[in-house]
């Protein structure tokens, strides 16, 4: 959710070696992963996208391995030359050439006559440390300053947007292809690093063509030219050039580890299962539909109940009713809830919360109106006439009819950090929600003259009276991207760890906020140094008795020194907010989105 306007991005191009690789088979992919294309268009055998695995450091004759994309010494991104896959028949190739001509001669020419807003201008959105990087095979023996805590044995992974190909039109940061960055932490103060694209159906198909082929939902689908882009895609799909039936998502936002699987998520598709290898490398397995239990996209912020092990998540639909559905899976991955939640309008619901007994769902003012494109506008609309509200749903509700809606005016929380239940002095049940309230609500989608604010807030909702109150916990400080100790999700917590989003849109440090007192303890990265979401890892696995202190653990995250042009991962002690270790990384790590930590114990139970 971060934007920059500092430096120009670097040029990526598809290497000749990998163009030839795309015409061979790969044993790393299965037909379940590659899209099942229209008849007589795509061969049954999938085409590879993975770079060859990195050779062992002990190999006497290590093979030189090229990454999937390379950087050129250039300061602009340019569209790729079309590379028509060998499986296309003669008619399809002619049609592809004709559609490409329409795109370059008509659509792109008209787009050049329009000044792009900063929020969808590629020169802004993918510049500086928001610019994409190439894949990096595993590097071992990284320099470590300080000591990696003994409890941190495993792999830290963080997701982000990393467009493989230069956009031909508008581009929003959320539109980029998903890339996961992984830092392995082992015995003896040893660390490794790698980064890999998540091989989505969309990316695999675009790699065959060597260019963008699918519309960018936020950057391109605006107004009449957005309709033209949509029509172009439909024509390509109708001719069998591309296939969106197996998803069009980019898997660039959230990461979660559930039931032995690392899942890469964006709310426009099913999650993607990504394997963590024994070498702490990453390998895409494929789209994950929870063993044929669902067939719809899921949001990028599922909630894992630390007590029951259940996974709670949502689906929202922008085209038809039901606009919202709630799902729950038990700790074994079996679906136990599939409920329709009645809302009147297709609404952006990026996040939600759970308590011990309830699911708390925001229904805020950012809505979808596809008809706005006909009028020349964006389909993502800030509806100022709508009153924000939260739906409180009993987890044991089997039909969804018992949901209680409570109005919370002037509230737009893009992220919710925690929620819990309390009993008031009069015996009423209160739902307490902790989130960052963003103003203006459409700040990350549209330019505004108003000063951006994202303030940590407490919302209290009385289930009997259906009244609410709201207060800012830390006024005057932009706090976004973070979390509580995950062992106490859904229970009353005292601390929350958040990125200090200042100067917006960059993050200059970490804030530990005491929710009882409002006290803020900061860890600042330093001059010209910026990071992203801090991830908290508890030092010890706690029981329901909550033995020990809630802040006993460590916070980790990536930091970029923009002056020295160096990237590192920092580890900060949660109780003291002092740095205990820093790991120098072999390549630039762009600013990104959300991450997680998978322990050695969890990796041993990984589903292969």
Which helices and strands occur, and which strands form pairs?
Elements: E1 11-14, H1 16-21, E2 69-72, H2 90-112, H3 122-125, E3 136-139, E4 144-146, E5 154-161, E6 178-186, E7 190-197, H4 201-209, H5 223-238, E8 254-258, E9 261-265, E10 272-276, E11 282-287, E12 303-304, E13 311-316, E14 324-329, E15 335-341, E16 353-354, E17 358-363, E18 366-368, H6 371-374, E19 380-382, E20 389-394, E21 404-407, E22 413-423, E23 429-439, E24 453-462, E25 468-472, E26 479-483, E27 495-500, E28 509-514, E29 520-524, E30 529-531, E31 535-538, E32 553-561, E33 566-573, E34 579-584, E35 595-599, H7 600-604
Antiparallel strand pairs: 1-2, 3-7, 4-34, 5-6, 5-35, 6-7, 8-9, 9-10, 10-11, 12-13, 13-14, 14-15, 16-17, 17-20, 18-19, 20-21, 22-23, 23-24, 24-25, 26-27, 27-28, 28-29, 30-32, 31-32, 32-33, 33-34
Tell me what the structure shows:
With 608 residues, the protein is mainly β. It has a single domain (90-605), classed as TolB, C-terminal domain (Neuraminidase), CATH 2.120.10. Strands 4, 30, 31, 32, 33 and 34 form a six-stranded antiparallel β-sheet that branches. A five-stranded antiparallel β-sheet has the order 3-7-6-5-35. A four-stranded antiparallel β-sheet has the order 8-9-10-11, with no helix packed on it. A hairpin with a 5-residue loop joins strand 24 (453-462) and strand 25.
- Which fold does the CATH topology refer to? Neuraminidase
Taken from the alpha-carbon principal axes, the silhouette is globular
In percent, how much strand structure appears in the residues?
25-35%
State the fourth-level CATH superfamily.
TolB, C-terminal domain
The CATH first-level class comes to: Mainly Beta
Supply the CATH architecture: 6 Propeller
What is the CA-CA span between the terminal residues? 32 Å
Radius of gyration: 24 Å
Can you give the mean pLDDT? 82
Number of strands: 35
Largest sheet: number of strands, sense, barrel closure: 6 strands, antiparallel
Number of domains: 1
Helix fraction, binned, reads 10-25%
């Amino acid at each position: 959710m971060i934007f920059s306007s500092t430096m120009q991005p670097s040029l990526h191009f598809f290497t000749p070696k990998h163009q030839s690789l795309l015409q061979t088979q790969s044993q790393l992919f299965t037909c379940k992963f590659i899209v099942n294309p229209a008849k007589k268009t795509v061969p049954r055998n999938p085409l590879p996208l993975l770079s060859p695995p990195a050779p062992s450091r002990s190999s006497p004759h290590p093979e030189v391995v090229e990454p999937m994309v390379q950087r050129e010494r250039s300061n602009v991104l340019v569209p790729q030359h079309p590379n028509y896959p060998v499986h296309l028949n003669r008619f399809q190739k002619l049609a592809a050439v004709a559609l490409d001509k329409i795109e370059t001669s008509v659509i792109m020419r008209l787009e050049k006559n329009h000044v792009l807003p900063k929020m969808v201008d590629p020169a802004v959105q993918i510049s500086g440390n928001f610019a994409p990087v190439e894949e990096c095979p595993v590097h071992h023996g990284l320099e470590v300053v300080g000591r990696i805590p003994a409890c941190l044995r495993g792999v830290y992974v963080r997701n982000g947007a990393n467009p493989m190909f230069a956009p031909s039109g508008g581009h929003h940061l959320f539109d980029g292809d998903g890339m996961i960055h992984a830092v392995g932490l082992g015995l003896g103060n040893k660390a490794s690093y790698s980064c890999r694209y998540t091989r989505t159906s969309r990316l695999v198909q675009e790699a065959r063509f060597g260019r963008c082929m699918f519309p960018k939902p936020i950057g391109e689908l605006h107004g009449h030219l957005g309709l033209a882009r949509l029509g172009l895609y439909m024509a390509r799909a109708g001719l069998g050039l591309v296939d969106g039936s197996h998803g069009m998502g980019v898997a660039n936002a959230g990461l979660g580890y559930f039931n032995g699987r690392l899942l890469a998520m964006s709310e426009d598709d099913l999650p993607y299962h990504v394997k963590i290898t024994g070498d702490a490398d990453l390998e895409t397995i494929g789209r994950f539909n929870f063993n044929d239990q669902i067939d719809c996209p899921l949001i990028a912020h599922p909630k894992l109940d630390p007590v029951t092990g259940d996974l709670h998540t949502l689906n929202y639909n922008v085209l038809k009713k039901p606009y919202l559905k709630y799902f729950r899976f038990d700790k074994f991955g079996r679906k136990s809830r599939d409920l329709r939640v009645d809302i009147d309008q297709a609404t952006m619901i990026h996040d939600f919360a759970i308590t011990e007994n309830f699911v708390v769902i925001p229904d805020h003012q950012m809505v979808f109106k596809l008809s706005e494109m006909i009028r020349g506008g964006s389909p993502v609309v800030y509806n100022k006439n709508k009153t924000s509200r939260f739906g409180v749903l009993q987890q044991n509700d089997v039909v969804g009819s018992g949901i209680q809606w409570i109005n919370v005016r002037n509230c737009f929380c893009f992220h919710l950090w925690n929620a819990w239940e309390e009993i008031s002095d009069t015996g009423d049940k209160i739902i307490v929600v902790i989130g960052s309230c963003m103003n203006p609500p459409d700040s990350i989608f549209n330019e505004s003259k108003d000063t951006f604010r994202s303030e940590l807030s407490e919302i209290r909702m009385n289930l009997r009276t259906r009244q609410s109150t709201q207060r800012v916990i830390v006024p005057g400080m932009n706090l976004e991207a973070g979390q509580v100790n995950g062992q106490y999700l859904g229970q009353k917590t005292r601390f929350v760890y958040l990125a200090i989003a200042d100067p917006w849109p960059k993050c200059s440090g970490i804030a530990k906020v005491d929710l009882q007192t409002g006290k803020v303890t900061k860890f600042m990265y330093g001059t010209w140094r910026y990071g992203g979401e801090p991830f908290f890892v508890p030092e010890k696995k706690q029981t329901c008795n909550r033995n020990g202190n809630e802040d006993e653990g460590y916070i980790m995250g990536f930091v970029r020194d923009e002056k020295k042009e160096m990237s590192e991962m920092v580890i900060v002690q949660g109780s003291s907010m002092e740095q205990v270790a820093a790991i120098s990384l072999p390549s630039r790590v762009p600013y990104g989105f959300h991450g997680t930590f998978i322990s050695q114990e969890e990796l041993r139970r990984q589903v292969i």
